[in-house]
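Two folds, back to back.
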Amino acid sequence: MSPHYRLNQHSLHSARLDDYNELNQQLMEGLQRFIDDGDTRKTHEFFGRYENIYIDAGKIPALSQVIRTVTEIAAEILQQPAAELKAGLWFNLMNPGDRTTLHRHDDDDELLSAVYYVKVPENSGELVLSRPPLDCRITPEEGLFVFFPPDMPHEVTENLSQHSRISLGINIGPKLRDD
């Protein structure tokens, strides 16, 4: 994995997996296999689609690998032991014409938020992070993690491609004693 780097002075970080093809293929196959299972939870319905698709990590082993990786990177960013952190994640499937409205992730005990890009067709939307004076547009790439503060307002522009884009939304928080 390439080292993370800081963008501007607003606590934005990124990391890129060097060998992500097999991992991403497993994630896409798992999403396809389990998206309509009875125990798959879907939330945040906007514009006719669910923005958050929660599939148990036990069903898709590649999700556990993402959680381990994101927790290790978050520990470095937050300068906390990885053993004291937990990560939760969900799939975000953006079909042609879909977009994600401006929102934040600071609803609970989040210390850091992130996105991991699984499948990124050209022109499938940009991540827009906005908090004055920052107005940052990030063009997604497969295998890329972007980390940002959970209270950072962000949105995703319209998917103008003819194909679906798949990413994982991630929140990192403190591990509780009973976790």
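---
second:
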Amino acid sequence: MIWFNKWADQLDGVLAANNINLLREDNMDIEVFDSMDAPSSNGTSLKGYVIAAYQDLLNVLGEPTFDEPSADSKTWQEWIVGYDQEIYTIYSWKQPENPADNPLETIRWHVGGYSSAFDFIDALEKELGK
């Protein structure tokens, strides 16, 4: 068992060094909704931030729920996710350029929710290798 743990730690180090993020469902029970089945996020508000590249979020969360500019042109992408029986949003807010155009550039993503998002942000950052 010690040999396996050492190997797993080495693999985690290689993945992190090469910016490869894998969603580990046993560590993070998250549901990313597509645009057809997404619950309403009306009434959510800013609860915190995640610093990440668009590609990192794609690696962990998959495709965004919405991948077109919002009607008011304030967001480019938005993920609507369920985590621990709560709804959260992750979105690019007032970015001058579409993050998908430069997917490796690190930016500040807004995290919205109905209540505190500390646990969700911690879990997401862990999956992002932060």
